[in-house]
Amino acid sequence: MVNPERASRAAQTAHGIRSEFVVQAKGEVVPRAPEAVNPNLATGEVELQVDELEIVAHSEPLPFQLDDEGVEEPLRLRYRYLDLRRERMQRNMRLSATVIAAIRRTMEDHGFIDVWTPTMTLGTPEGARDFLVPVRLQPGKFFALAQSPQLFKQVFMIGGLDRYYQIATCWRDEDLRADRQFEFRQLDLELAFSEREDVLDVLERVVVVSFEALDRTPPERPFPRLSYADAMLRYGSDKPDVRFGVEIQDATEVTRGSEFGVFANAEAVRFLVVPTALSRAQLQRLEEFAKEWGAKGLAYLVVDESGEVRSPIAKFLSDRELEAFKAPAGSTVLFGADSPAMVERVLGALRLHLGNELGLIDESRNEFLWVLDFPLFLRDEETGQWTFVHHPFTSPLSGHEQLIESDPGAALSQHYDLIWNGWELGSGSIRIHRQEVQEAVFKAMGMSDDEARAKFGWFLDALRLGAPPHGGFALGIERFVALLAGESNIREVIAFPKTASGSDPLTGAPAPATQVRLDELGISVKAAPVKSSGT
Ligand code: ASP
């Protein structure tokens, strides 16, 4: 409050103040007049009677107004420091810091020590491409930026650092999405002589203390568990959103010998019941959607409000089939008939799509879930080879070691994922600690001995020199914080994120390198860099 009678020079200065100017004021803190009290402000009962006022920094007109909610993201990111002044970003950054501090305290309280691992390394496979770093001292050679500290943390176990953790930055060259950035952080941890229950216990504690640090009611422990097989069967996803039902049901048995050829000939027939009688136009759109996910078509039965069944396929279905697909009035049965993997993919996508579209998801619910017992290998769709599901250091389930060679597709692993409301928060596993099992896994993935040695020889050597059983986990910090902050994109909880095209609008990175630098590194650039639009 500048009162011209009390401080006339300050009043004159005040006339020159514009939006976002930085000012310094000296004066007296006094109670506000009763009509000026603002209970919505922490300082709403007092005011500063200014005696001296100085403008210490000017601001040019802003590229956007701080209270404007509709500012395009590229503009927000170009002027992120202005964006950070806004309440939402202030809240998100502070929430993130509170959660990370709580996580660190929990880890330290449980005897974990924070040990740093290298950024530049030989590469740890986590299913993405490596970012490469050329080395001036050794032209033609490259470090890979660590996709995770995976092998280093396993080596800590061999090195006697039996409870390790780190808020580790990871780098993965993959397409960016709402829940993915090139660089992100993980609560990375590993424990020696641990079993699955020990690891899950630590993670559940971490989740609970994070809620508590934010004064929220934590989810109840233990978190529910679902096997990978059940998750795929019932939800068509290994990260199911269980805040709504519409579970997938199996109809393979009942459709054997069906008059409807598509069903009779399909390896798997499954369906889901949507609690709405969908219109023809809606069904057409859904069919397009299903086709985008790989389906050949979308068979359906609509049960209208009077219980009448409307469907081009009903006439081919036997009474037994119709009985199996019986749905209440005002609903629609949607079918998937194909290979099990395709049916899971399509019905899983449809379920989630309709859950959102029809408002079936109860947003007030917090559903944490463990998905367990993943397969050890999956077929790589491009090469047809067996490949790891998460990374190749995951131990098979006890008793499944023989299957690595004899029937890789049937081997289950000791891998587990933590899911929150359909987001994969993180993954972990009990690891292979015997070198012959590790070698067998590399072999099953089609890796020759030479290749295995070239890529992982140093690690196989370490496994030969007294490796204790061990396991661990990595929790995606930004995903976790985004969900805690109620944000649907991790960019909202990262101070300086990259845009979907992989650029940083603030600094203009990435940028071409000078010829001198390229020459020093022994690199010649073939293609001209694609000009980024900054979005
Ligand atoms: N290294 C794994 C990852 O980054 C996590 C783990 O298995 O501990 O996802």
| Fraction in helix | 25-40%
Class by helix and strand content? alpha+beta
As for the CATH topology of the largest domain, it is: BirA Bifunctional Protein, domain 2
Uncertain parts = none
Binned strand content: 15-25%
User: What is the number of independent domains?
Assistant: 3
Global morphology: globular
C-alpha end-to-end distance: 43 Å
Description of the molecule:
This protein has 535 residues and is an alpha+beta fold. It is built from 16 helices and 20 strands. The strands form 5 sheets. The protein has an 8-stranded mixed sheet, with helices on both faces. The chain has a 5-stranded antiparallel sheet with strand order 10-11-14-12-13. A 3-stranded antiparallel sheet has the order 4-6-5, with no helix packed on it. A hairpin with a 2-residue loop joins strand 18 and strand 19 (423-430). It is globular, with a radius of gyration of 29 Å. It binds aspartic acid. Aspartic acid (ASP) is lined by residues 126, 148, 150, 186, 391, 427-429, 472-474.
Q: Briefly, what is this?
A:
By secondary structure, the protein is of the alpha+beta class.
Topology:
Layout: H1 8-15, E1 22-31, E2 46-57, H2 73-78, H3 80-83, H4 87-109, E3 113-114, E4 120-121, E5 132-134, E6 142-145, H5 150-158, E7 163-171, E8 183-192, H6 196-213, E9 225-227, H7 228-235, E10 249-250, H8 261-265, E11 268-274, H9 280-292, E12 300-303, E13 309-310, H10 319-324, E14 331-338, H11 340-357, E15 368-372, E16 377-379, E17 386-388, H12 403-406, E18 415-420, E19 423-430, H13 435-444, H14 449-463, E20 470-476, H15 477-484, H16 515-521
Parallel strand pairs: 3-7, 9-15
Antiparallel strand pairs: 1-2, 4-6, 5-6, 7-8, 8-20, 10-11, 11-14, 12-13, 12-14, 15-18, 16-17, 18-19, 19-20
Helix pairs in contact: 4-6, 4-15, 9-11, 13-14
The structure holds aspartic acid (ASP).
Aspartic acid binds next to strand 19 and strand 20.
